[in-house]
Amino acid sequence: MKTSGRVLAEQVKRIAESKVFSIRSPNLPTWCPGCGYFGIHQGLNNAIQRLGLPHHKIVVVSGIGCAGRYPFFTDTYGLHTVHGRALPVSTGVKLANPELTVFAVGGDGDGLGIGGGHLPHIARRNVDVKYLLFDNSIYGLTKGQPSPSSPIGFKTKASPQGNKDAPLNATLLALSYGASFVARLFAGDPEGITNALIQGIRHKGFAFFHLYTSCVTFDKEYKTWEHLKQWVHPLPSKHDPTNLKQAINESLDDSFSLGILYKRME
Q1: Fewer beta carbons within 10 angstroms: which end of the chain, N or C?
Q2: Inter-residue contact 209 to 31 (CB < 8 Å)
Q3: Residue 215 and residue 133: Cα distance in Å, rounded?
Q4: Kind of pairing, strands 181-186 and 257-263?
Q5: Alpha-carbon distance 166 to 148, whole Å?
Q6: Please, are residues 90 and 46 in contact by the beta-carbon 8 Å criterion?
């Protein structure tokens, strides 16, 4: 037991000395235990650390929803804005100070519902903002209504007879609107998120990250961890991320293929 304790103490010391957690704020995340947002949080923190981005030159902008809490959990500047307005606010921040690294974060309700009208304009303008869309296909903070990405037939307390509306394909929307960098990722793969974010942060222009995740509290039948682990798979090895048509075809496949779908060559 003493040996195990000493080994654990040495591991804790190495982690502390690596400063891997220095990007985290003193406020612990308040998401539900098992929420996929923890994996996304780890992925973004790792990318910031590995790139050595100065914390005082980072701004994280959020809207409303479970993802809206994000700025409180990261040791950077942050703006917790109103519902659906993370993208226009982040645009203003970037234009006011181009030297900043600006992240916009939001859920599928925030980004595809009330805020859906902002995505085409930041994409076509190619503003150098990195947008992380946390897509769990449900309104978690307001207790489980179907969202714009919920599938037809999806039953919740607010839709006991099943969702009647066709879902939006966030990846296809970003590609159609002209986003110059588009990646599709999985909250259960923090390392994959980190690697894609590193490339997206280095990309000069609007980068869109569609993140499949789960809501363990209000979704027991669709995007569960069990289902997502079965569904997700890497993009085909022959995929060419510089080919927009190929990226669109991949997004139309309605699959859960992961990776960098598109990167516009400058």
Answers
A1: N
A2: no
A3: 14
A4: antiparallel
A5: 8
A6: no
Percent of the chain with pLDDT over 70: 97
Distance, in Å, from the CA atom of 213 to the CA atom of 207, rounded to the nearest integer, reads: 19
Q: What share of the chain is helix, strand, coil (3-state, %, to 5)?
A: 40, 20, 40
Domain extent listing, the chain: 29-263
Instruction: Tell me how far the alpha carbon of residue 71 is from its chain's centroid.
Output: 13
Q: 182 and 218 in contact (C-beta within 8 Å)?
A: no
Express each pLDDT in 148-160 by its tens digit. Answer: 999 999 998 888 9
DSSP string, 29-61: P-SPTT-THHHHHHHHHHHHHHHT--GGGEEEE
Largest CA distance in the chain: 60
Residue with tokens 């006991």: 160
What residue has token string 């682990």?
A: 229
Torsion (CA) 137, 141, 144, 145 in degrees, nearest 10: -70
Neighbours of 219 (CB within 10 A): 20
Burial of 34 (0-12, 13-18, 19+ CB in 10 A): exposed
- Cβ–Cβ contacts within 10 Å for residue 149, how many? 24
Residue 41 in contact with residue 73, Cβ under 8 Å?
yes
What is the per-residue pLDDT for 1? Answer: 47
Q: What is the CATH number of domain 29-263?
A: 3.40.50.970
Taking only the tens place, the pLDDT of each residue in 3-25 is 577 888 888 777 777 666 778 88
Q: What local confidence, expressed as pLDDT, does residue 23 receive?
A: 82
pLDDT digits (tens, 9 = 90+) for 187-228: 999 999 999 999 999 999 999 999 999 999 999 999 999 999
Residue 64, φ and ψ in degrees, nearest 5: -115, 150
- Cα torsion angle, 89, 90, 94, 97, sign: positive
